Amino acid sequence: MKGRLLPAGIFLVAVAGQVQAADLTISCGAVGAELQLCKSGVERWEAQTGNSVEVVSTPNSATERLSLYQQILNARSSDIDVFQIDVVWPGMLAPHLIDLKEYLPQNATDGFFGAIVDNNTVEGRLVAMPWFTDAGILYYRKDLLEKYDLEVPTTWAELTEAAQTVQAGERDAGQKDFWGYVFQGRAYEGLTVNALEWIASYPDGGTIVDEDGEITVNNPQAVKALSHAAGWINDISPQGVLNYTEEEARGVFQSGNALFMRNWPYAWDLVQSEQSSIRDKVEVAPLPAGGEDGQSAGVLGGWNLAVSRYSDHPDMAADLVAFLASPEEQKRRAIEGAYNPTIEALYQDPEVLAAVPFFGTLYDTFVSAVPRPAAVTGDNYPRVSNAFFNTVHEVLSGRVTADQGLESLEGELERIKRRRW
């Protein structure tokens, strides 16, 4: 370990009291089984190569993690060699990352989803390897829908009605803490994702900013989407959902206290674990559409592996990245943790499909997910996202109406746009 104090109070300490520095340091998330799967993958590479790696846990909030990364990279620090980066970050972090094409074989990205490789290629430089992909999906209690003779909802209105029905019935039966729907409502990147899924599911709801850089978020359908969502608070969703990230939502759902949950695929392995109180009572479906003329709109997520330009060992770090993103390692992570591979062939792998059946049934959801407007807004994306999720949080909290909030947001985005995205 390097034994240095990093921003946000992260400290790399020696293993077993030894003062022996690791060869490399990698940052990994800790949502669900993410950290443990990262550690076990790293251990496999260590056994294969004889090198040593320190795994550093970073904040679960993508917003907080980006801030930490920017502090480290702007300081040109070598404290972290390999960064786990969000799918919307390659453009803004590219100046600090090596071109993996210079370190990996020419066929290193063969078989990977081309759209993700393109997303991670900035001005011809491959700045990150695709590690796992994501799209928002709907988890539901199949036993409770059967109990109340209800169908899986295909629109948000149907979800609302089903949630109200089951919530009332379960509370009457004595489960006073039961709720109809939980999601990620804290003011952070996760709320940008949830709210984009709502507005993009309505016909002509827009995508905040379109591919041409035009601001589309202030429109009647987006107002309708956010107004509908605001109506969930203290009706089918608890007030506390306004402070939920992925794990808080999963905690409520997995404890048996919610009918529906919006989350990423990683939650599947956990809600189906032996420790889960709802094991074998859960199924997944595409997120609902915004009415009969709308469409399901799971937002594209996922994480990639990048190597810092300031690493003391870029060759070694690139080799670690190649190993962790390999077909064998992605297959293991899919089976053990339900993390979506970025290699197309694994979606036809019998062992993967046996472990996570919806990788097959929801394949179209994953390959046609809605992107966030990171490419068109570039370095200004964090400002755009912050403005959006703060506005949505105000609407959900009842401090402003949806039309007031979106009109104000449009003005703020226009000011950001003048900085040239």
Structural class: alpha+beta
**Strand numbers in spatial order across the main sheet:** 8-9-7-10
The tally of strands reads 11
Q: Report the mean per-residue pLDDT as an integer.
A: 94
Radius of gyration: 21 Å
Kindly give the count of domains: 2
Helix proportion range: 40-55%
> What is the assigned CATH homologous superfamily of the largest domain?
Periplasmic binding protein-like II
Strand fraction equals 5-15%
What low-confidence regions span 5 or more consecutive residues with pLDDT below 50? 1-5, 7-19
Q: What is the CATH topology of the largest domain?
A: D-Maltodextrin-Binding Protein, domain 2
What top-tier CATH class of the largest domain fits best?
A: Alpha Beta
Shape: globular
In the CATH hierarchy, the architecture of the largest domain is 3-Layer(aba) Sandwich
Measured distance between first and last alpha carbons: 39 Å
Count of separate DSSP helical elements: 18
The major sheet is characterized as: 4 strands, mixed
Query: SSE string, helix = H, strand = E?
Result: EHEHEHHEEEEHHEHHHEHEEHHHHHHHH
